Amino acid sequence: MNGTAVLFFIAAIGALSGAVGVVTLRNPFYSVLALVFHLVSLAVLFLLLHAQFVAAAQVIVYAGAVMVLYVFVVAYVGGGQEPLTMGGATFRFLGPLFGAALAAELIIAVLGSALQGISTRGAHIGPAFGTPEHIGELFLTKFLFPFEVASILLLVAAVGAVVLARRRRGLEPEVEMDRRVRMTRPSFTGTMAEAAGTRLPQPEPQGPQAPLDSEPEPAGATGGEPRYKGGW
Amino acid sequence: MAATTFSWLVLLCPLVGTIAIAVGFRRLQGRGAGWIATAMIFLSFAFAVVTLALVLGKSPHHRELTSTLWRYDFSAGLDAKLQILVDPLSVFMVLVVSGVSALIHLYSVAYMDSDRGYARYFSYLNFFVLSMLLLVLAGNFIMLIVGWAFVGFASYALISFWYRRRTATRAGIKAFVINVVGDVGLVLGTFIIFQHAHSVEYLKVFHATHHVFGHDSATLVVACLLLGLGAFAKSAQIPLHTWLPDAMEGPTPVSALIHAATMVTAGVYLIARMHPLFEQAPTAADVTAIGGCLTLLIAATIGLAVTDIKRVIAYSTMSQIGYMIMGVSVGAYSAGLFHLMTHAFFKALLFMSAGSLISAMAGDQSLDRMGGFRKAMPFTFLGFMVGGLALAGLPPFSGWLSKDDILGFLDHRGGGFLVLGILGYIGAFLTALYTFRMIFRAFFGEPAAQARELEAGHLAHADVPRNPATGEEEDTDVGFPGAEHHIAERDPPMKVAMGALAVLAVIGGVLQIPGVDAGIERFLEPTFADSVLARSTPSTSADWVGLAIGAVIAVAGIAVAYRLWIAAPETPGVLRRRFAPLYTLFVNKWYFDELIDLVVVRPALMLGRLGDSVLERVVVARGITGGTVGVVRAGSAAVRRAQTGLLRYYAAGMVIFISAVALYFLVSSS
Amino acid sequence: MWIGGYLVVSALIFCVGAGGVLMRRNPLVILLCLELMLNAANLALVAFARMWGGEAGQIFALIVMVVAACEVTVGLGLIVAIYRRRLPIDVDELRELQG
After folding, report:
1. The whole model's pTM is what?
2. β-bridge partners, B85
């Protein structure tokens, strides 16, 4: 059992406990703190993997800037104390269940036959592996395009945040919106008819339903008395 | 030019007339449309005369000419062509149709003046003449059916000519529906014949009849009965006759032309043309003969009782066509067609005179209110008398010779046909009776108010135009009769037309006087050369015996009518009370309308209502469309339950899906 | 050292984060759990970078960090906006997408 393995286990346990803490702690402020602890543990793991620059960036950017942002927001919003039982009846069981299932799968995948071919040594790496100079050089040569795209993404995110956070002039009156959307048109008209202001068509009055055969001749129908008195 | 070319010209003239008037009616002033239409028909008649001359110029064996204008493609072996057959029968019919139509057009020029639909009337009338000529000139079954259908349409259009009158439109619908029943029979009959003879051309079918169908074979009997159904519907024989009295809703010249002289004779023409088929299927011919006889009697009895003058003449038409149908069904072809010709003359004359009389009565058609018009309307009275005497069959008028020609043939054939002949004589008695009932009541006796006005020189006018049948108020705008009424005494075209027909009604009989000449029989011989029945004709002496009996009966009928309505005027009332149930039966037209209503119309309406309430509302609306809607709604409702709006459900879905995919890869790679 | 260990840790962290997303109602905490999941991915990336000897994994991990930062920015902006509207900060109450 050499030092790297010991350090690995300590960092791993730290990361996992931080993760569990994020999920289970009721107060969101405490969750943020747990995440910070988790991030630092991850940084140690990165160091063990010869990723110095990534570890430093993790601590400075992630734990230092992003988490501070989180702290500000939590302070502003003020997360309430959320009791565990209120987490939705279904998901109190299903959440951990799904998570466990996924974990099992992934672990089986990792430890199973698919990854048997992993060598325990790792590839041979030079001394400059993971150093800031090397990473920087790669960023500016081989990975220039992702670098630039990432900066644009940051710009977009900044603009988005400003747009989301700006103060509008009061709330939009929802009542007006509703009425415009839900107003029903009178039947038989379309929008042009509304605009033109025509009147609704009247339904056709039903004519009397008469049978098709003719009536037998009435004896003296058309105006006036039958002047013929003979009868036949 | 050949005879067939002139026949095509005969057809062309009314077509030109129809289209010219239909297209240019706005530019035609006054009576322009009328004169154009009349000129076209006179021209058509002239061409028909030329055709006659050319046909007579050929030897009798070469008088069956066909001419094809266009061949529709052969399809399924159907050799349909735009083809006419010019033979003595069709030339005869063309002459009668175009001649009488021309005179009726002339009459209408004056009669329909002041009607807002003047041009429309003449366009329709020309179209009718075109269709009728097409029907009689047709050289194959297909053109016959086309002409048949066109004639049905023209009849409908002209019956409901005053389309704002509900009674008129209903009558038009009734006529059309009953005609459709006949059309179905005609088409089915044609189909059966085509199926066996493999051709639709007349000459080919007729020559093949003896080979293809056995004597009195069931198939041919059925086919002929179906053709007979068509004939009965078009000719208003029982039981498909109920439309004809209602068709009197149309203008009087229309009644004269379509429902007296020409269209209703189409059935007679049909049976005469199909005589090879009917002779090969005597059962069917017997059925039609008996049908004609029944109609003859029943219609005559109804004519005795009704009081609307136009309806009396309509039932008279029905009755006379019964004679004709009886004649051509038993083999008296030339006699039946001779009667067709003379009937066209005197019946058209009677209708024209009736039109004049109704005009004088300011639109009132009821005999109950007419009387004593003899002094006020001498010319119309003359028209009625000539027509009535010809109808009754008094010598030497044409009707006497033609009607008794038929009855003589029936007696000659003997056996059961003798019974039909005797019934025919009884019908002749009734004919004379109801004809002179009409004349005596309308023209004799105490003058009506309108007659007195007319004697004073003033044509009566109704204050408010009314529907003659129901008494409803109308106006005189488009769709109703015009404001002015025209009588023969004052309008020359009417007088000329009536005069011409009167002359023909008197002298028309000279064509076929037994023992003297047999003009019609000899002319028609080439067509009926293949007929077995037509060969044996009664001897001259037997003919004259029949004529004598006919004359006696006619005189007897007139005498009885004189006694009842002039000599002893209280007698009719007494007789009516004595025979009240019989009178009720007659005046209600033997309850045929009620019977058809009960047996056909009510079940159809019930079926329709059933279809609406059950089939339409329940099955279609609620079941099929409602069901589809319901299924879609239920499906959407079920699917909509996945849209909870809860973030965590969506997240859960994603997690499950990812797990499933990972599981798949795990399993598939192991 | 055995790479499998890092991957197992990464898997476990990921699943804890997923469970947290499903269980918690406060959107802030849900975002935190999302961060957990992102971090787990980062760990896996860096572990593989070490295994294969190329730095692409580390570069990618840095980009992921950038993405996480942006996403946090926008997410927190949303939460602030929701808070300012006086709507409850509870994903079970924010259900306008319900169909």
Report:
1. 0.71
2. B66
